[in-house]
Amino acid sequence: MQMSLSLFRERHDTSKKNTMTRFLNRRNFLSQATTGLSSIALASLLNEQRLLADSGPIRPDIDPARPFASRSAHHPAAAKNVLVIFCAGACSHVDTFDYKPELVRRHGQAMPGAESLVTFQGEQGMLTKSPWEFKPRGESGKMISELVPQLAELADDMCFIHSLTGKTNTHGPGENFMSTGYTLDGFPSMGAWTTWALGTENENLPAYVAIADPRGTPQSSVNNWGEGFLPAAFQGTQLSALKPLDNLDIPPGVSDQTDRATRSFLERMNQRHLQQFPGDTELAARISSYQLAARMQLSVPEVTDLSSEPQSILREYGADDSQNELKAQFAKNCILARRLIENGVRFVQLFNGAYQTGGEGVSNWDGHKSLQQQYSKHGPVLDQPCAALLKDMKRRGLLKDTLVVWMTEFGRMPTFQKGASGRDHNPDGFTAWMMGAGVKAPFTYGASDEFGYKAVENVGTVYDFHATILHLLGLNHKRLTYYHNGFERRLTDVHGHVIKEILT
Predict the structure, then answer these.
(1) Domain for residue 183, yes or no?
(2) What is the mean pLDDT of the chain?
(3) pTM for this one?
(4) How confident is the model at residue 249 (pLDDT cuts 50, 70, 90)?
(5) Helix or strand (DSSP H, E) at 237
(6) What is the Cα–Cα distance from 224 to 178, expressed in whole angstroms?
(7) pLDDT class of 4 with cuts at 50, 70, 90
(8) Which of 40, 59, 226, 450 has its CA 20 to 30 A from that of 185?
(9) What distance lies between CA 96 and its chain's CA centroid?
């Protein structure tokens, strides 16, 4: 009987514990469920009020009949326009903008820890100082090479980033990466993303223009200004001062009156066809492209005609230099870039350097074999025209609304290649700079190591670089997305942060 009573009590106690456990579990569940539902409700509220930074994609609402109509930014923008100066061929940072006194002190010595270092073209030789002297510039005292003395005069207007890193040491993929955020072909360029998001302020001109070097296109060619998977309308339009758009002139034997009548008739037929098929966005886009082409027949020749430029401007840019034809041609491209920005073109890419022709290092900044000889030709072509362009833009007040970006696909080694007098490719630390709307100046951000080999301070990626450019344009790089092949694609892939330290 005593055992039975004890067993009863034990079972009763167990039953009480189980009941209590069930009660606690129920209470815990309800508590957690309530918290979860509250979180969902709060997230929804924040999303509605746009208080969550990354609450979802923001895609532009584009009228197919007016794909380039000006559109609102995500947040207040510091810059309305962008001018990218792209030195193709990987311009050496340690010979231009990244001063390394240790290279001078240890010239001809082996780089510590680099005994087994093999890069793009093989074994490395000794540490090699720049053939050009670095001097302090402006009130800031920024050390810049004598290779670019006129650009150096603008040091107090520049914001330097000395700690960029890339993903490849090969030119084509490197150009792709700097222009599109991906090393592979087929992805939209910065300019395509920008014009897709924002349109333009002058619909009589292309929203996005690429000005190739007088020697030809860069190694990745049209990928640098391609639209990728974005609508085709947002591909960059290739122009140059020497060769404006093909087929803009009225054919011989066709009068102005006949041309106008023909275009008017075509316009009426297109509009009638569109009325029969309302909602056909592809048809509307095609009609829009024809209309833009017609408007460009009038606007493009006016913008590309440099005969109206005063002789003093031509002289300032070096466009009248009879001793250096290449510099004169590039200078005219620089004047064209300024005129395009002046006329409201949203995004302009100006290339200095083309695909390798005529021997290594002749057409671009790829100085493997004889860097001093090669760069002595490239430096003057870049220096005076670009310096004049920036001074001219500043004088005209264009830098208040324009962000200028100077970049190259990667840097170069602080050593010379074994058996050569040039530097190999180096994506582990290189330099870019910005000027104009929204960035601090004079300012220096990040640093490479004592030799200029690797980024070591405030190490940044190309994704960070792109995120910052989009931010200055009023665009959230995480939310500017395009749904493609099952992915929400963006310029910065799944990476990147805004470099807030350089912003005004």
Answers:
(1) yes
(2) 88
(3) 0.85
(4) low
(5) strand 237-239
(6) 8
(7) very low
(8) 59
(9) 20
Per-residue model confidence (pLDDT) at position 448: 98
Question: In the structure encoding, which two tokens stand for residue 317, read together?
Answer: 């840019």
Task: Please count the structural domains in the chain.
Answer: 2
CA–CA distances in Å: residue 206 to residues 77, 117, 320, 441: 21, 46, 28, 31
Q: 142 pairs with which residues across the strands?
A: 137
Same domain for 156 and 12?
Answer: no
The alpha-helical segments, DSSP class H, found in 305-416 are 311-317, 325-342, 371-395
Assess whether 202 and 347 both reside in one domain.
Answer: yes
SS3 4: helix
| Residue 49 half-sphere exposure toward CB, CA atoms < 13 A | 7
Could you give phi then psi for residue 105, rounded to 5 degrees? -65, -35
DSSP letter string, 311-330? HHHHHHHTTT-SS-HHHHHH
In the prediction, which pLDDT does 13 show? Answer: 53
122 within domain boundaries: yes
CB 198 within 8 A of CB 354: no
The SS3 assignment for 128 reads coil
C-alpha 142/C-alpha 443 separation (Å) is: 9
> Pick from 9, 33, 51: which residue ends a domain?
51
Bridging pattern class, strands 122-127 and 415-417: antiparallel
Q: Which structural domain range is residue 181 located in?
A: 81-249+299-502
Same domain, 450 and 489: yes
State both tokens at 171: 């030119």
Strand pairing report for 425-426 and 443-445:
unpaired
What average pLDDT does this structure show over 32-54?
A: 49
The number of beta carbons lying within 10 Å of the beta carbon of residue 66 is 15
pLDDT digits (tens, 9 = 90+) for 324-361: 999 999 999 999 999 999 999 999 999 999 998 777 78
Select from 199, 190, 230, 466 the least CA-distant residue to 348: 190
- pLDDT at residue 284, rounded to an integer: 66
What element of type H or E holds 179? Answer: helix 171-180
Instruction: Render pLDDT for 90-135 as a digit per residue (tens, 0 to 9).
Output: 999 999 999 999 999 999 999 987 767 778 887 889 999 999 999 9
Q: What is the pLDDT of residue 117?
A: 76
CA 371, CA 382: separation in Å to the nearest integer? Answer: 16
How far is the C-alpha of 421 from the C-alpha of 370, rounded, in Å?
Answer: 5
